[in-house]
Design a protein that fits this description.
Layout lengths: L1 H4 L11 H39 L4 H35 L12
Helix pairs in contact: 2-3
Length: 106
Amino acid sequence: MLPFMVSAQAFDPNSTPLDDSFTNILTFINNVLIPFIIGIGFLVFVWGMFQYFIFGGANDEAKAKGKSLMIYATLGFVLIIVFWGIVNLLAGSTGLTTTPPPPPPV
């Protein structure tokens, strides 16, 4: 009971090594890759705002560059959320969820 209480991986007799690999990849995408890409997109958006409002005071070229960065960052956010939704939709439909299986009966 102790491994279950500390959230260790429970043994699932029906899982195959391929299922475990897909689950690990899915966990990596959801917990590491997507938040990292969203963080990069946020930094690009903030840099675009900085260029538009601070650097581009009277310079129309700097304003245009900042505006395009903000637009690209917004499109990036949309694509990231769509990618995240597709990954979770495929994982849910194939039964590869990141939740651990229930503990074995005692």
